[in-house]
Amino acid sequence: MKAWAACLAVVLCAAQAWAGTIRTIQSFDGNTGWLNSQPLTLADLHGKIVLVDFWEYTCVNCLRALPYEKVWYDRYKQYNFVIVGVHTPEFSFSGEKANVAAADARLGVTWPVVLDGNSVVWQRYQNEYWPHEFLVDGDGHVVLDHVGEGDYPATERAIQDLIRKQQPGVDLPKPMELLAADSYTKPGAVCYPQTPEVYVGLWKSPDASLGNREGYHRDAVVSYSDSGRNHFDGFVYLQGPWFNAEQAMVYSGKDVASDDHLDVRYHAIQVVSVMKPETGKPITVYVDQDQKPLAQKDAGSDIRYDASGQSYVVVDQARAYELVMNKYFGHHDLRLRPAAYGLGVYSFAFESCEVGTDR
To answer: What is the chain's alpha carbon radius of gyration, rounded to the nearest angstrom?
Structure first.
């Protein structure tokens, strides 16, 4: 089983500038397909400056790195620079080519992406993390090995150094400034403790995430009862009928009752949930925080509001949804209320770095 290193302790992850023992670029043989490119061999890449980027389209930390990678690719592809994204899936659905292609289109990923559906490339690179980047010079030597978020200006400077070695005197732009959300190393920034990532299904650690006394029952629909009291941080509490899939809990109510829900208590600023409409049809999911609709100041980018002011998200693809971006760090109870049969809830990830606006 692969280690899921979401690198939520961002400052620590940013410090890991050299993470492993791989010293040369490795083959991409054993892949399950390519997107945005014909298959690339090491011979095709010889002489090029290559950023090998292990990522996963549901990984919140990978998504936070994308704005920088887009800028680097646009700025430097004319200077013999290429990104090869290695997409090694975390979930079964995120290994499907159609889902990755849809994510590429939605996220604006235009560089070559190799599909590593069987983790062959992952293992060849001795990888354990998303995101994980290897910067390779024209001779195939790894000059930078970086795990996790952060150090973006340093990575861009390393790319520029390799370009200048190949093209002395070239005029290159100033490295991209940190985005506000990534300014956690600046004065006044704080990274608070946060709830660890929660896997809702039983595949990672059975009974570790489910707070209901009914427990897990593989491949069965269980009618769960949640008193709403004495919830522990980082545990999922269910009300109503839910199917126990290996990687998710799937809402199985036929006549949707208003009190059927999934609750999770957490401490953090941001909450991202991986969800999927298992029937293929869009599902409206009402989202409450602390027993009331999300305040607009605390709403994540995927939250919408109906005419009555109720906050909700439309789950229409298998992907990560940003539900909460609290203005301030704190402890909260988050409740999801699916309005239709078939909502699959896979995981919750939390972030807690603030740039100082709460001071």
So the answer is: 21
CA atoms in the 13 A half-sphere facing the CB of 96: 9
Cis peptide before 173 (omega within 30 of 0): no
- Where does 88-232 show beta strands of DSSP type E? 113-115, 132-136, 142-147, 190-191, 198-199, 221-224
Structure tokens at 333: 């109870």
For 333, other C-beta atoms within 10 Å of its C-beta total 16
Q: What is the pLDDT along the chain (359 residues), one digit of tens a residue?
A: 343 344 333 333 333 455 568 899 999 999 999 999 999 999 999 999 999 999 999 999 999 999 999 999 999 999 999 999 999 999 999 999 999 999 999 999 999 999 999 999 999 999 999 999 999 999 999 999 999 988 999 999 999 999 999 999 999 999 999 888 887 777 777 889 999 999 999 888 666 799 999 999 999 999 999 988 889 999 999 999 999 999 999 999 986 667 899 999 999 999 999 999 999 999 999 999 999 999 999 999 999 999 999 999 999 999 999 999 999 999 999 999 999 999 999 999 999 987 654 44
One-character DSSP codes across 125-154: TT---SSEEEEE-TTSBEEEEEESS--HHH
Strand ranges for 234-356 from DSSP E: 236-244, 249-251, 261-277, 283-289, 292-293, 304-305, 311-315, 319-338, 343-351, 353-354
Which pTM value belongs to this model?
0.91
d(CA 301, CA 212): 30
The answer to whether 269 and 312 have CB atoms below 8 angstroms apart is: no
Residue 61 host element (H or E):
helix 60-76
List, in order, residues 6 or more apart from 160 with CB less than 8 Å away: 76, 172, 175
Alpha-carbon distance 97 to 77, whole Å? Answer: 25
Task: Region of 190 please: left (phi>0), alpha (psi -120 to 50) or beta.
Answer: beta
| Dihedral (Cα; 4, 271, 216, 244), 10-degree rounding | -90
Torsion of CA 154, 160, 166, 170, to 10 degrees: -150
Which two tokens mark 331?
Answer: 């402890």
Residues 141, 24: contact at Cβ < 8 Å? yes
